[in-house]
Amino acid sequence: MRQRQEETQTEEALETEKSKLREWAGTILYFACVMGGTLLLILFVGQRTTVNGESMVPTLQDGDNLIVDKITYRFRDPERFDIIVFPFQYEKNTYYIKRIIGLPGETVQIDLEGNIYINGEVLEENYGREVILPDKVGRAIEPVTLGEDEYFVMGDNRNNSKDSRTQIVGNIKRKDIVGRAFLRFWPLDSFGILKHQ
Description:
The chain is of the alpha+beta class. It is built from 1 helix and 12 strands; from the N terminus they run αββββββββββββ. The protein folds into 2 domains: 1-49; 51-193, Umud Fragment, subunit A. The chain is 22% helix and 26% strand. Strands 1, 2, 3, 4, 9, 10, 11 and 12 form an 8-stranded antiparallel beta sheet that branches. 24% of the residues are buried.
């Protein structure tokens, strides 16, 4: 009788131990799935970024927190006036956020009066904060012809933006575009989907 009780207690202890192991395994599996899902979202769907500087004023303000849509450009090409995020080639972990002005194969030029020309035609747009000053025209004073995978980008704060008008930024390759700015979630009073077109 005593031996049977000991066997029963041993079986119960083993069952309890197995139950604890199953519980731990389930918890570990749950956290692994959450971490994997989060990683997939960050790598392929969306990414949080913070605006640093005033090159996109008045559209975006210094300190705005955004979600960058990383999936749209897997199904379509970037379009004129899209606000995109791309890495700054001379500084690690630094990203720029600018608006697409020129598309692949187009020729972009800016005259000393601040008019932007695409293939010789004046670009009709209302994103620039002010008239581009003659000393801010940069390399676009001469025609800039874009390659088949290149984009010409500018900040909306046209006289306070390092963008494709400078040699240091230049034309942006399609492969370097991280995604398009999609949603501003902070500050809360400016919460909303960003206007591109």
